[in-house]
Amino acid sequence: MDKKKDFTAIFKTNYPKVIRLCLGYTEGREDQAKDLAQEVFLKVWQSLESFRGDASIGTWIYRITVNVCLQEIRRREVTHIKIDTAVDQTISSEEKEQQFTTMYRCIDRLPPENKTIILLELEGVPQSEIAEITGISHQAVRTRIHRIKEQLSKCVRNE
Amino acid sequence: MNSYDEIKNQWDKRNVPLTPEKGVEEIIKKFALILKKQRISQMVLGCTIAVLIGFFFYISAYSHIQLLLGLGVMIGSLLIRVLIEYGTTIKKAKLPLGSSMAAYNEKLIAYYSARRRIHYYITPILFVSYVLGFVWLLPLFRQNLSSGMYSYILWSSIFIFAVLAVLIGVQIKRELSVLKKLKQ
Questions:
Q1: CB–CB of B16 and A113 under 8 A?
Q2: How far, in Å, CA of B171 to CA of B118, rounded?
Q3: Domain limits of chain B?
Q4: Alpha helices of chain B — where are they, by DSSP H?
Q5: ipTM > 0.85?
Q6: Do B1 and A156 touch (CB under 8 A)?
Q7: Which residues of chain B make contact with A156, given a CB cutoff of 8 A?
Q8: 3-state class of A81 per DSSP?
């Protein structure tokens, strides 16, 4: 089995969904999201041989992405790394960009678990797979999604 | 934008960076660099242990009971601390990132709880042992060194111990905050 060939196929297929999810964790900041995505695929490369196939490769990559991104968020909060807001100020003049900023901000205010659930829901991941990725029961995921959607809508209305 | 459907619509319209063309090569290169750094760290650790043991025999520390105790306790506590740190770093790297979020969180909680036990019980003992080892050596320094050199060693060591205590404290505080966040 050619590891590099397999990895290249995995990378090309999954990079778009990994970067999209990472953008949700970094309030839409591309540079930070790219770094996180690279970290995710570094871990994928590192543990590709240990992948046992008890979940689909897509679910496995989503799990790594969620765990890597949450670790990074915790590290930033604990070390009090300030997120640069200069980009926001320059783009805030345009209404469309302002809407993106509002959406990302509201997502960012959610607790880590809920943030993960709603980001996966926004990505169109089926709820049964979200349950597999998060390790939360399908029923609980369904209930939570309903609640988070309400919270999110309320937040963007009030911003 | 006031309903979830509009948020979803907005979400789908985002600009997303393209897949980097040389992404795979960059990752493989970065991984090779990480492995190289790990090998260098292992070599540095090995050399440090060898130098410390060599120094111990070079000054014939075993022939003088006070020197043997002082230096032995200092080197021993330092080595134990470094090995514990090295061991837990490897343990963390081996945590299964491909587990579900909840399972991985549980593993992280277990990891940081073990670290907390190390910080609460082993680190203070090792730190006190290290300082005691130094205190045991002080009479020998006084006998064999000039008073200026003796004062320099004494005060610079007190300063180093204080800085070390603060750094260890900051690190412990950070790890305890991570544990607290994980348990929320």
A1: no
A2: 12
A3: 22-58, 62-184
A4: 4-12, 23-58, 65-93, 101-117, 123-144, 147-183
A5: no
A6: yes
A7: 1-2, 7
A8: coil
Q: Name the residue range of residue A60's domain.
A: 3-158
Residue type, B59: I
Chain A residues whose beta carbon lies within 8 Å of the beta carbon of residue B20: 15, 34
- CATH number for the domain that contains residue A60: 1.20.140
- Give CA torsion, residues B172, A134, A64, A32, to 10 deg: -70
CA distance B100 to A54: 12
Question: For A38, which of B3, B16, B27 is closest by C-beta distance?
Answer: B27
> Residue B174 and residue A79: Cβ atoms within 8 Å?
yes
- Partners of A38 on chain B (C-beta within 8 Å) are 23, 26-27, 30
pLDDT digits (tens, 9 = 90+) for B103-146: 999 999 999 999 999 998 999 999 999 999 999 989 888 888 89
Tens digit of each residue's pLDDT (9 = 90 or more) over A51-90: 877 788 999 999 999 999 998 888 877 665 544 444 444 4
